[in-house]
Amino acid sequence: MQNQELRAIAVQVRRDIVRMVHACQSGHPGGSLGCTDLFVALYFQQMKINNRKGKDTYLSFNMDGKGEDLFFLSNGHISPVFYSTLARRGYFDVKELSTFRKIDSRLQGHPTTHEHLPGIRVASGSLGQGLSVAIGAALAKRLNGDKNLVYCLMGDGEQQEGQVWEAAQAAPHHKTDNLIAIIDLNGQQIDGPTEKVMNNRDLKAKYKAFGWNVMEIKDGNDMDQVVAGLRKAKRLTGKGQPIMILMKTEMGAGVDYMMGSHKWHGVAPNDEQLQTALNQLVTTGTIGDY
Amino acid sequence: MTKYTFTEKKDTRSGFGAGMTELGRTNPNVVTLCADLVGSLKIDTFIKENPERFIQCGIAEANMIGVAAGLTIGGKIPFATTFANFGSGRVYDQIRQSVAYSDKNVKIAVSHAGLTLGEDGATHQILEDLAMMRAMPNMTVINPCDFNQTKAATIAAANWKGPIYLRFGRPVVPVFTAPDQKFEIGKAWMVNEGKDVTIVATGHLVWEAIQAAEILEAQGISAEILNIHTIKPLDEKAILKSVRKTRCVVSCEEHQANGGLGDAVAQTLAKNFLAPQEYIAVENSFGESGTPAQLMEKYGLSAKNIVEKSLKVIQRKQ
Predict the structure, then answer these.
(1) Which residue on chain B is closest to A145 by alpha carbon?
(2) What is the pLDDT of residues B66-87, one digit of tens each?
(3) Whose CA is closest to A161, among A242, A78, A81, A74?
(4) Is B190 within 8 Å of chain A by CB?
(5) Same domain, B241 and B112
(6) Is B52 an active-site residue?
(7) Which of A84, A205, A214, B84 has a CB 3.0–4.6 Å from the CB of B113, allowing a cystine?
């Protein structure tokens, strides 16, 4: 798929995000919008995904993930972008996005495996746990002789959790070189700018010191840069080190009034704000709202 | 009563090690993780024979639980091993989200549970782990009583689909169960049939219960002993059947009275059949340094205490 098509899908995913969050008047639009370009690039172009379809015409999903790339979302609160991407990719009906955060839904506030939503391999939301799980999945691939890759996305605020650094230490120690981790550097967290709440300081130097091969995506909301960055990361796998991508994004990217502030971390737009957002997110091509 | 004898004493953790050795040879999907306590967990043979299936995690238990959860995604059966103190409360949230809620086939196998850890003292003597793990949805909780039962439980755990908390201990204790026993998760073992009082025991307290029953027999009292090795799911049927007969119960565990086996039994009785119950358990207190035998005596977990509580509970019968 060409980058131009990815951009069109990303607009649609952003429309899904604001509509989902608006419909239940809760959820986390800011980080979801910021990571949309990454999710679309991964699921529609860069990741190797089992394309077999089940009888119900949706992608057949195997928890074991043997023979395909795996993705783990550690900062589970950006579930809207995850759910929309999975539905748009064909794992389940896009209409199901309307059940997000509502009673009896498979689309829980934070991703879970409990309701058997295809595409989710572990629960996340309590921060700091995803990288450890990704390492385990990567080690299982190695034991199984499976050459495919494991991706893991974390937040920058999440870097304040101690378990992240236990995992950061373990991945290079076990030479987990089939693992590509990504940190969403949007510089914001619930109580304000990350550097004011708890300064992460130099993550690049930290991960290098821990033994990672660290690279950067300067603008994680520029599809060309995201794609080029992921291509480069894949070239760096298999060389004895795990890969860390530090990816700068803008929280709320695509919706002007949500950008540049932590205020839209976990707040839903009202009717008027939704309309403003949708007017800014204009779809092209044949994709439509759910 | 049924006579139980022993020719040797062994630690239950060595039973776990023996079980892992066998699993290493018979089940290629079994992977072992450890947080810098290989010698204590007795998994040296497994590691020697299957070096590629051992993952040393260092002193980083939270990460170990997550790595174990991830390994299941490739079809592995990981045993995450450490001391009970570091494999329960320290990593409760990791077990809750990445393992139990995510329905991952992780076995958390922990040694040095309870007071009998001994001289290291209260910092390491976890007495709340059964309560924590019982409260967790989707978790199976097992506390075997001797070397042979621990070995059998370890092998059964690998064949059971779903998360398990397998708890065992440090000191050598009599080996009195059959060497090649069948271990059925969730099924109580009738150690001795009796009619006057039911003694429900788990872990190291089973041998104490047998000794207590012998003392009681000499006084003309017939004690029924049920070994509840699986605290969750609890074999309610076996407990109720016994208590309906004896009409009183003494629960015995190396754990806090709050939230452990005794409370599980009490809950069952309250819902189904009211009968007086006495607890052999630690009463709202931390442990301390000492030899295992000294500690079991000081905190009221010996055969002598079981006899006293049995006489008391019989008195309380209507």
Answers:
(1) B74
(2) 999 999 999 999 999 999 999 9
(3) A74
(4) no
(5) no
(6) no
(7) B84
